[in-house]
Amino acid sequence: MNPPPAPELDPQLDRDYDARGSVASFEDEYAALVALSEAARRDIPVLRDLVFDPASGMALDLYGAAPGRPVMLWIHGGYWRAGNKADNGFAAPGLAAHGVAVAVMDYSLSPDAPLAEIVRQVRQAVIWLAQNGAAQGLDTRRIHVGGSSAGGHLAAMTLPTGWQTEAGLEAGRLGAVLALSGLYDLEPLLRTKVNGWLGLTAEDARELSPIHHLPAASGAPIVLSVGGQETGAFRDQTARFEAALAAAGHDVRPVAMPGHNHFDITGTLADPDGALTRAMVAAIREIKP
């Protein structure tokens, strides 16, 4: 049988999900994040290129590792087809100032890697930190996770528990989750240009949408935010995910960021006194090992 025809492109949805088009200059926004990342590498001890997944060769950079420190895995955005760990070091300074190490990962990019493979790699990074972080002196009783945009989606895809059981991780090993400007229901993307590189079917979109696979509440906080200057589509994704999490009994903690766009919201993580930094530090500290 022939596969069903791809959904027609919806011009309005395409505009709504155009993150780069939502700012005056994506190049300027990205350059600011790169500058923050370069400063992070100058100011914070970093272990570079630690391979966490031999199958793909993907590696992470570990910022601020020190004895007894908890660790957060940071997952970059870029609509699953762009971005890298070097340009995402900005996620480390704020948390490191409060005694939290930050692991910034790479993952294989679409369209060379299907989205299911990217999700596998992110989960493998969590497994690697759980199994190897203690060698760096880290407190690995909980592995915390954060990400923005596509990275917010991937962070949310660590919430389902089946993969953790299959990997032999103890129940409750996943800690606090920070999800910024994420894409939690992929169905609308089937009618945008984004699916030109993702190549998702309707079945794929549902299987890989975290909003449809929420586990029972674990007690670990989930910090959610989206910039007030982002498009209605991104704000709606976060609002719907927040409602779904709350309905499932999760400790969901929204953080309002009214003056921020899809990109500069992430740069606030470089600030030890930033609202997102403070919310995530509080979430990490409140969790009982």
UniProtKB/TrEMBL annotation:
GO terms for molecular function: hydrolase activity. Residues 69-189 form the BD-FAE-like domain. It holds the Pfam family BD-FAE. It comes from the Bacteria. Keywords: Hydrolase. InterPro entries: AB_hydrolase_fold, BD-FAE-like_dom, GDXG_lipolytic_enzyme. The keyword Phosphoprotein does not apply. This is Alpha/beta hydrolase. The lineage of its organism: Bacteria, Pseudomonadati, Pseudomonadota, Alphaproteobacteria, Rhodobacterales.
